[in-house]
């Protein structure tokens, strides 16, 4: 009775390790790139051939392609150079809203044998929206007796890049 239980336990562990190593060889690595928003189409994000350790012939023969988890194809692979390039302008505010960080998860699929690589592209904000005040002009009346270094509170301005009102001193 003891031998049967021990055998079953060992067999279960062997099956688990086999599946683990199969998964390990299928999903190998994760790469992360950072780019500013509003890059023009055709801009290079990174060199996938170099980062994945593949030759240009392997990229072409094994049909390297990018699959977006977000649904839209913002990026594609230039098989001739092995580079990840931008397909369309990316507006960070439209894509991620008021979120502090904006990361697009992607999957790189390589065939024969099948390999999946997880790729993340972080979209950095550029200051393309200036703060806007409600009033065009503001008059301050400051007394002569005001101490040097006195601060005066101004109305809040809205900055669409930050997503919240800003208080300027």
UniProtKB/TrEMBL annotation:
Residues 27-133 form the Cadherin domain. Residues 1-29 form the signal peptide. Keywords: Calcium, Cell adhesion, Glycoprotein, Membrane, Repeat, Signal, Transmembrane, Transmembrane helix. GO terms for biological process: anatomical structure morphogenesis; homophilic cell adhesion via plasma membrane adhesion molecules. The keyword Glycoprotein applies. Pfam families: Cadherin_2. It is found in: Membrane. It is a single-pass membrane protein. One of its GO terms (cellular component) is plasma membrane. InterPro entries: Cadherin-like_dom, Cadherin-like_sf, Cadherin_CS, Cadherin_N, Protocadherin/Cadherin-CA. GO terms for molecular function: calcium ion binding. SUPFAM superfamilies: Cadherin-like. Its main location: membrane. This is Cadherin domain-containing protein. It comes from Xiphophorus maculatus.
